Amino acid sequence: MKHLLSIADLSREEILQILETAVSMHEVQHRDVKKLPTLRGRTIINFFFEDSTRTRSSFELAGKWLSADTINLTGKGTSVSKGESLRDTVKTIDAMGVDMMIIRHMASGAPAQIAQWTKCSIVNAGDGMHEHPSQALLDAYTMRQRLGDLEGMHVALVGDLTHSRVFRSNVLCLAKLGARVTLVGPPTLMPAGIGPWAQAEDITISHDLDAVLPTVDAVMMLRVQRERMSGGFFPTAREYAVTYGLTNERLSLLPDHAVICHPGPMNRGLEISGDAADAAQSLVLDQVSAGVAVRMSILYHLLSGEGSAA
Amino acid sequence: MSADRPTNTSPLLITGADLAGAGTGDLLVVDGRIAGAGPDAADQVPEGAQRYDADGLVALPGLVDVHTHLREPGREDAETIETGSRAAAAGGYTAVLAMANTTPVTDTAESAERIWDLGQRAGYVDVHPVGAVSKQLAGEELAELGLMARSRARVRVFSDDGKCVHDARLMRRALEYVRAFDGVISQHSQDPSLAGATACCHEGELSGRLGLPGWPGVAEESIVARDVMLARHTGSRVHVAHVSTAGSVEVLRWAKAQGIDVTAEVTPHHLLLTTDLLTSYDTVFKVNPPLRPQEDVEALRAALADGTIDIVATDHAPHVRQDKEHAFIDAAFGMLGLETALSVVSTVMVAEGRMSWADVARTMSTDPARIARLTDQGQGLTVGAPANLTLVDPDRKVVVDAARSKSLSRNNPWHGRELTGGIHLTMLRGRVTAREGLVWGAGA
Amino acid sequence: MCPARDQVSPGETAETGGRVVLAQAEINRALRRIAHEILEGNKGAEDLVLMGIPTRGVPLAHRLAAALHAVEGVDIPVGTLDITMYRDDLRSQPVRAMERSQLPEDGVDDKVVVLVDDVLYSGRTVRAALDSLADLGRPRAVRLAILVDRGHRELPIRADYVGKNLPTAQAERVSVRLVEIDGTDEVVISAPEGEGR
Question: How many helices and strands, by DSSP H and E, does chain C display?
């Protein structure tokens, strides 16, 4: 495996391998000496064209704890008029002889395009509305820690699906792990073409959160941007919170064993109430903790072993 | 047979060609005009006439493209009138209409005349400038349509292409105004509030999966529907540029049945390429309107075959490398098309039995010239007409090589693909402009 | 303790091919002797910790702990030390799955750690184990207990306690099988593939 561009590229076995290794990596996090020599001498560039403190520091720690040399770069974003083409920008860094670039970009498909232009290994840390593979893997890891094997489990994904890369990666990952997925949200926030897509992958669509919650083993609340109101996607924040938010009232609809996930950052009071975010069933902080371990596992699988990025 | 082109001075007898699907015959060209056409053209051959053996070739009237972007003035790094003309001649064209979205915009008589003069000076094809509908393509006030029509460039086609004339009142005024001089508005149908500037992938399952901003078919269809009703209401004619959806075809079919004076064009790429090609995020396939699913492609083919869509137009859109080497959503829209148009139509429509060569002559020469009201082109292979013609080798297999293009740009979606049918020779008013990959302009 | 399976005595050819050099009885005798040697060298059981190197070092460490208990009547802490991340040959092999490391409850700081493994060969595994141990804590001393030393060291490493010294040709294969993992107790030397027995 040379790149991690999309969950679609991973087989079920490869996903399970990454999650298994992550368990051991998680133990390193709790040691005094948070260091493994495994990736010593490897060079990793965190190339973030779109800002993100959380994901970037997670990847940076993952690289450093494996003894790789990691550097953070910020890109110029989508301002095409600034002159240098995206291709030139990445080829310049690639020419320095780096082993891996971890790319976050606001344009869907940018990491895949970059992988065509460069020699090093490429990890997609979030591209536009397309995918966020490491997030889906850490979500699966966190859910498995609490629920065990996800085969046959019912997971609901709730919120602004159309603009969410977390949703797209999770839908693919959960399917490969044998979970059953239900999508919940207003029709205006469902992705275009979701009808045939859902049919092909055996996904259920619902606009009634109250009906779905009692039947789930896990509910993942996705972030809703307030700016979507001006795009006509929903009328007011109040209406959204009442119809699709995980309110205090809705907490009691969840089965006792069910878990709550949120990729962050959270809009407390909009898609998730304060109590729900802090509830015992909430895995939000576990997700963050798992993030470094899962990312260590990803880097290990891509950069060590023969046949990996040379 | 000499490798050089035949000279212009002496009469020329082209023998044994299939005359636009009407059967085998000869063509006699004297002083830039067709002096004889058909099985008995050879009877009148004068002393000293050259001969050209066209056995196995199809003779078509010179192709006319009503939708090309030549980028000059403003982006001469991507294409110039000269290099675009060379590409056109290599593609069998004898006339092209150059869209107005240059820098500066072609919205005055002076700017129109400049483009006409540059085209004539290059001398590969007749370059007719398209005039902007609105000043600066801003979509607010009418440009000087009348003065452009009265200029030496004799502008008859007006378009804000690149952008849609989305204000209904402005579109109505434009449709009415150009009636005075038999002009026509060519509309780039895209409602900007349904498909904005970032929309780049047919809105459907694939755009959902890939996370690319969707360009729904209804953004085109709603404008087409509005414009045919405006055309009916004003009694004007209207032309729909680059039709891309089955829904638009349905509207056109209904409109024509009502007797509304609407014409429509389809590009070669919309006849063959589908939205699935975007899975790789390869920006060579980014175009506006976007590539659509197979169902739309089938509907467009059927519409071209049955006349609901009148003509083929290339929407040739050259771009320098760096404008395409960006993330998909940031890359420039457009594909090259002049050199491959005939081959694509030959492969998709003629070789598959959907159209005859006579249909090709109609959809790629005579009807485009008629829509654009050209006087010197598109008169077919008839005695007395200017000798604008192209000889096509219908069976030649061509593997497209982007590097061998006459265009300055290389954004070619056909690279590596095998097509059936190629241009053998192009002639502009009796002067050969292209033969076997070589081109000659004025003063050559 | 004899398991219910058929046992092969030394010299006979085992069902899987090759020559058996240690049968079950001899393996257990060796472990008992090593237990005595450890206690003698350490002057008792104080501060002793056994760390087994996966895979087969782990059941051996547990057996050694049982033998130490039988002699001294004390429970010696046993842990597991995964060395995958510390190997020096990671890039020349397919990606390896990690095993779990497990520190004993009181850790390894200021303890006498006895590393336990089945075969000592090039010494690289033990080198990796020393690096791995160093990241877990600071033992007072580290000792090495090995069931079989087959020679051909590539690093300056030697075992403190050896079950059996076994001179081998480099091309030969040494296989240790343990009841806990393989269902039988034996150490087998086999000829290289494709050659006669």
Answer: 4, 8
Three-class SS of residue C93? coil
A36 at the C interface (CB within 8 A)?
yes
> Which chain A residues are closer than 8 Å to B212 by Cβ?
108-109, 128-130
* Long-range CB contacts (within 8 A, 24+) of A196-201: A196/B205, A197/B205, A197/B208, A197/B209, A201/A171, A201/A175
Residue B91 C-alpha from the chain's centroid? 11
**Number of A:B CB contacts under 8 A?**
87
B270-294 confidence digits (pLDDT tens)? 999 999 999 999 999 999 999 999 9
- A280 and A296, same domain (yes or no): no
Domain shared by B234 and B296, yes or no: yes
**Catalytic-residue membership of B401:** no
Which structural domain, as residue segments, surrounds residue A87?
7-131+288-303
> What phi and psi values does residue A39 have, to the nearest 5 degrees?
-105, 25
Contact list in B for residue A86 (CB cut-off 8 A) is 325-327, 330
Interface test with C, best of A1, A17, A20, A21 (most C CBs within 10 A): A21
pLDDT, averaged in runs of 10, over chain C (197 residues)? 45 64 95 96 95 95 96 95 89 81 91 97 95 92 96 95 93 94 94 59
Which amino acid, residue B279? T
In a domain? residue A310: no
Strands (E), A129-280: 154-158, 180-184, 204-206, 218-221, 259-261
Tokens for B127? Answer: 């370059």
Q: In the 3-class helix/strand/coil scheme, how is A148-159 assigned residue by residue?
A: CCCCCCEEEEEC
| Residues B178 and B146: beta-carbon distance below 8 Å | no
> Among B169, B139, B145, which residue's Cα sits nearest to residue B157?
B145
Question: Does the domain at residues C21-90+98-190 carry the CATH identifier 3.40.50.620?
Answer: no
- Same structural domain for residues B348 and B300? yes
CA dist B79 and B85 (Å) reads 10
Between CA B422 and CA B343 the distance in angstroms is: 6
SS3 B147: helix
Q: Which of C36, C38, C40, C59 is nearest to C49 (CA)?
A: C38
